[in-house]
Amino acid sequence: MARGGSPGLVADELEVQASWFGGEYGRVFTGTEGERIEVVQFGHWNRGAGPDFTEAAVKVNGELRRGSIEVDLDVRNWDRHGHAGNAAFNDTVLHVFIDQPALSRVFTRTQSHGNVVQLLLPQYSGLLGPPDFLPEAFPGRCLAPLARMEVAEVESLLLAAAQYRLRRKGERLHVMAGATSGEQALFQAVAEALGFRHNKTAMAILAQRCPVRELLEMAPGDREARLFGAAGFLEAALTEPPRTPEARTYRRELWDHWWTMRPEVETIPRRSIRWRSDSTRPLNHPQRRLGALATLLGHWERLLELWEKPVNNFPKVVNNWSKSLSHPFWNRHYSLASEATPKPFRLLGKDRLRDLLGNVVFPEAIRVSPERWVGYARLGGVDSNQKLRRAVLRLFGTDRERQKLFTRYYHQQQGLLQIYDDFCLEDASDCRECPFPEQLLQWRRMSHSVSHLGSTLNAGRIV
User: Fold this and answer.
1) Domain ranges of the chain
2) What is the pLDDT of residues 29-38, one digit of tens each?
3) Which of 114, 208, 290, 448 lies 20 to 30 Å (CA to CA) from residue 284?
4) Is the CB of residue 118 less than 8 Å from the CB of residue 110?
5) What angle (nearest 5°) sits at the alpha carbon of residue 177, between those of residues 176 and 179?
6) How far does CA 23 lie from the centroid of its chain?
7) pLDDT (tens digit, 9 = 90+) per residue, 265-303?
């Protein structure tokens, strides 16, 4: 846990590294000794032993330094992991971490006795959203004041929360684009949208390790093999025999392409991407989601056009575009080893398309053209998930009528999730000291104008 932060905000080192490499913490910082640090080039993910990122370029007080960057959870991990005595770390120009001792100073030294510039990252940026940990839900103290509010008042509340959430997503994409490129930011955001909550970080890391421009320059077979090989799925598949001739043929084709690029792309076990397939529907298996991403790259230019030059009626256009996404294997298979399904399924279903619109296309479009909010507000809701169900139970209890009324649209669901993030997940008093119930009283005294209500959002919380 970062010193002074909230528990559970950072799940593991890979998440921090992915956020760092994606530029989500920014690229201009102040070092632990007051140095002005500017990241000119984030470098490359290291596939082998040594620092996390190689061939980076960093300006320290205006002086350009080239070398490697190491990202740890704790500054003390440099010594704990033996980096101080490892010559492979001698060219490290920056040691990034999110925690350090409160009462003692720890320096970063190399084997050659060089002093490495240190950077304590700002407290978790929040750009990736709240943690995966979700406390058990129960009707909260906000249930009573919400029940007394008129439908229009509740809708105004959700609109304001949704606007803030959407703005944050647009800002995140903008920051990522500044650190890499707009196209790469789009690719990572699309990959995350396909990854769902459990595999969002895994997809982000894969998108960073397989830059979209490199993939687009490859032949389709090489491109697909690069993604599945870099994900570690081809190595894992060796332990699970294919159940159908189609699966056997498809895996052999991937291997025929993969083995030629494998020495240059494969990572050591310590840096392998961790995937989760538990608690997911078969159609949402991460291997099938990756198959959809590989297929989508064959139609990439059209999605890029929609992102850069939004058209009217986004949902209809994106839905029509998605119908062109088809794959002879993934249309009827859940994983690399599964049996074929009796009938084919679309690679991108209704909920995935709406998340793609709500989390990727609309945030950027509205950031550039705020009037496109109207189209976003008409976007229908997605099937409820565990987190949304908890948010609904906290705010509306067992009132089925209100539950249904305020989850019909995507923006309503996003507003509920934002309130849940800002209050329920931040509250450590089991609801007793949460300020939200009292703040709801202020809403009743405010104008119902969405623009006025939106101005009450401050620093990530509704006030």
Assistant:
1) 13-120, 143-165+370-462, 176-366
2) 999 989 999 9
3) 208
4) no
5) 65
6) 12
7) 888 888 899 898 765 677 888 999 999 999 999 999 988
Asked if 374 and 366 count as a contact pair (C-beta separation under 8 A), the reply is no
- Summary count for the chain: helices (H), strands (E): 21, 9
Give tens-digit pLDDT for 9-62: 344 788 899 999 999 898 999 999 899 999 999 998 998 889 999 999 999 999
Cβ distance 153 to 112 under 8 Å? no
| Residue 431 in this model has a pLDDT that exceeds 80 | no
Q: Position of tokens 């089991």?
A: 430
CA dist 188 and 201 (Å) reads 10
Return the residue matching tokens 């490892």. Answer: 86
H or E element that contains 207 = helix 200-209
pLDDT confidence of residue 237: 65
Q: At residue 356, does pLDDT exceed 70?
A: yes
Residue among 100, 196, 162, 123 nearest 377 (CA): 162
pTM (2 decimals)?
0.76
Strand partners, 37: 29, 60
CB atoms within 10 A of CB 193: 23
Containing 70, the helix (H) or strand (E) segment is strand 63-74
Q: What per-residue string of b and e applies to 345-365 under the rule 16 or more CB within 10 Å gives b?
A: eebbeeebbbbbbbbbbbbbb
How far apart, in whole angstroms, are the C-alpha atoms of residue 166 and residue 187?
18
What CA–CA distance (Å, rounded) separates 246 from 227? 20
Rg of the chain over Cα atoms, rounded to whole angstroms, equals 23
Buried/exposed code over 404-420 (b: 16+ C-beta within 10 A; e: otherwise): eebbebbbbbbbbbbbb
